[in-house]
Amino acid sequence: MKKIKGRMDESILVCVYYGPNGERLIRRGHKLAQIMNCPLYVLTVDQKAYDEFDAEKSGYIERWEELCNELDVDEFIVRDNERSSVKAIKEVAHNLNITQLVIGQSPQNRWEEITKGSFVNVLLREMTFIDIHIVSIDRTLKSEDDTMYEKGVRGFLQEDGDTYKLRFTRSNDCLYEGIFYKEIGTDFNNGVFKFVSKKGKTCQLHITEDTVTAKMEEPPNIK
After folding, report:
1. What are the strands of the beta sheet with 75-79, ordered from one edge?
2. In whole angstroms, what is the distance from residue 220 CA to residue 174 CA?
3. Per the UniProt record, which residue ranges are transmembrane (predicted)?
4. CATH class of 12-136
5. pTM here?
6. Would you state the pLDDT for residue 119?
7. Are strands 211-212 and 148-149 parallel, antiparallel or unpaired?
8. Phi/psi class of residue 168: alpha, beta or left (left: φ > 0; alpha: ψ in -120 to 50)?
9. What is the distance between the terminal CA atoms of the chain, rounded to a whole angstrom?
10. What secondary structure letter does DSSP report for 44?
């Protein structure tokens, strides 16, 4: 049984999209909810139907749901088959009596209007009496050994003999789609490739000059 929140006149909605920044937004919203001692909800919106989500999207949703359970979030909401993200957010906010909205500012996600300011302006027009918190997202990735990486870019993993090569163009030979983080200060494609396996498991591979140099945690299934 969930603990009854102290302030029911306030409620927070965190909007996340696919990518490594979703977890950070959820944790930010959770900290805000703890300070205000109020209900917390997490929402993700997609134009596709849920059963059409690929392995990467399904993996992110699974991880976010686990995190929401871990942080005792009141509800994790998936709105699929939506033509308008603003309309979906507005409906959820209205139904849950939301007073605080948390969104991320990053050019890598589908909330791309945020970077131009138009998305926020639409939200402000559509949802009065709601405070909107725009969280700036770091464009670099830092590893445990303090190695710094550039902003992640979309990449693909392709089988090449006994190993696997990093590619930046989709083809029928690509096994996985993910995000490549290039090491800062190198002229070659050295860095880290992150993707979600067909079993929904998040995997991380080290790349040296376009080639995977670490053993894959799960053998690719190309059937």
Report:
1. 75-79, 40-45, 12-15, 100-105, 131-136
2. 10
3. none
4. alpha beta
5. 0.58
6. 65
7. unpaired
8. alpha
9. 44
10. E
